[in-house]
Specification:
Radius of gyration: 22 Å
Strand content: 15-25%
CATH class of the largest domain: Alpha Beta
Helix content: 25-40%
Number of domains: 2
CATH topology of the largest domain: Rossmann fold
CATH architecture of the largest domain: 3-Layer(aba) Sandwich
Largest sheet: 7 strands, mixed
Strand order of the largest sheet: 2-1-5-6-13-12-11
Structural class: alpha/beta
Number of helices: 9
Length: 425
């Protein structure tokens, strides 16, 4: 494998084969006091950026290797099966890292961490539930969080009746209760365990179980009411105290270490997928291509979402480029990762190839977030010297820049008066 192969991979959108790993190995993860315990952080049922970029770091700080994944659980719990990740292949002329996509044989995991606080988020498919039950029965661990921010609703978004996480919890013999319960400054779901198999580890102020655990076959399961117990929520405008941070770290270590005790630590080298401020470790297993746009998604995404993407994204891309002519990498596809649930998106400009992330299942989010993230990569027209012709008062490519074009696109799809005719000049 050569740099020419890397360039061809970027231009085509096809990942490098796993045979290229000896030439372009994955960088080693930095794990403080490495225990050898391998954690698979599931994002395919709720893509929460606080977990993707926050909880993953906490796990590594606590001595646990962590690979986050946007792919269906049954595809990543099969050791040796190849998933799509990013590796490192030097630097571009502008000094930014080149992180091409590459196929990577799955490593065995000690523990799966999964969470879902959105009743409308993607389902845990029957194949995933079967794979997860078998994984735990054979000695694997499972840690489940039923909430993120401990803000009081159960679930935090969507409806209780159709909440997919209830199915997962039921598969291991427990139930999520209907109403949230208080613990200190937070409120979160509580659980009912079936029979004497379950041990209560922590209770709410009102006595209901909010952390339960049990053995299941050779493995172990931990149910926790909220990720708030182990992770200070992002973007709240609040800071946690030193003692709160220590308590959260202690809880996280306890949950994962106990769940991992069903089999020896996987260990091995530390050449593992990482996020690098983007979506990875493991990218979704499915893909659709149309009009120079490549959409990556897990098999549990609703068909209606994919149809909307295929019909509208090429139109939106063209419209924004007409409004703001900008150089775009025409010799490579626009890559979009569809995350699970609702809540925003991201754009990768810090390394190549670029990517956009979308987390939504509603029209306003699907079209608006795409417009926002696409606008982030557009700097405006060039002058005769090839430089950006001008910068507006707030600087090109920032949040105000992206939000402006998001608003113009949303105005094309809605009659929301707050858009103030921003679809017109």
């Amino acid at each position: 494998m050569t740099p020419a192969d890397v360039l061809a991979s970027i231009q085509s959108g096809d990942p490098l084969p796993s045979a290229a790993l000896p030439t372009y190995p994955l960088p080693e993860q930095e794990v403080a006091g490495d225990t050898g315990i391998h954690v698979l952080l599931d994002l395919a049922h709720h893509c929460y950026m606080g977990a993707m970029w926050g909880l993953a770091g906490q796990l590594k700080d606590g001595g646990f290797r962590c690979v986050s994944s946007h792919a269906s659980l049954d595809t990543v719990l099969e050791p040796g099966r190849e998933s799509i990740v990013r590796t490192l292949a030097g630097e571009a002329a502008d000094g930014k890292p080149i992180r091409p996509f590459i196929r990577w044989p799955n490593r065995e995991a000690n523990v799966v961490v999964t969470f879902q606080a959105d009743g409308k988020a993607p389902a845990y498919a029957a194949t995933e539930l079967a794979s997860l039950r078998e994984f735990v029965a054979q000695g694997g661990g499972l840690v489940v969080f039923a909430d993120i921010n401990a803000k009081g609703r159960c679930p935090a978004w969507g409806d209780y009746a159709g909440w997919p996480l209830r199915q997962l919890v039921a598969a291991f013999g427990a139930e999520i209760r209907r109403d949230s319960v208080p613990l200190g400054a937070g409120t979160m779901p509580a659980f009912s365990g079936g029979g004497d198999d379950w041990e209560t580890i922590e209770a709410a102020d009102t006595g209901e179980p909010i952390v339960l655990r049990r053995a299941f076959g050779k493995g172990r399961v931990v149910l926790a009411g909220s990720m708030w117990l182990v992770h200070h929520p992002l973007w709240t405008g609040t800071e946690q105290s030193v003692s709160e941070k220590a308590l959260r770290a202690e809880r996280l270590a306890d949950y994962v270490s106990w769940a991992a005790a069903g089999k020896p630590p996987v260990g091995g080298d530390l050449q593992l997928p990482d996020t690098h401020g983007g979506a990875g470790g493991i990218y979704p297993e499915c893909e659709r291509r149309f009009g120079g746009i490549h959409v990556l998604y897990a098999a549990n995404q609703p068909t209606s979402v994919l149809q909307l993407v295929e019909e509208e994204y090429p139109k939106i891309r063209q419209r924004i480029l007409e409004w703001l002519p900008s150089p775009v990498p025409e010799d490579e596809p626009l890559r979009i990762l569809f995350g699970a649930g609702t809540g925003g998106g991201w754009a990768v400009n810090a390394f190549y190839p670029k990517e956009n992330g979308i987390i939504s299942y509603e029209l306003a989010g699907i079209v608006g977030i795409f417009a926002h993230e696409f606008a982030h990569i557009l700097s405006g027209p060039r002058n005769a010297a090839g430089d950006v012709a001008a910068n507006w008062f707030d600087g090109n490519q920032g949040e105000a820049h992206a939000g402006f074009f998001q608003g113009r696109i949303l105005a094309s799809y809605t009659d929301n008066p707050s858009m103030r005719d921003c679809n017109k000049i």
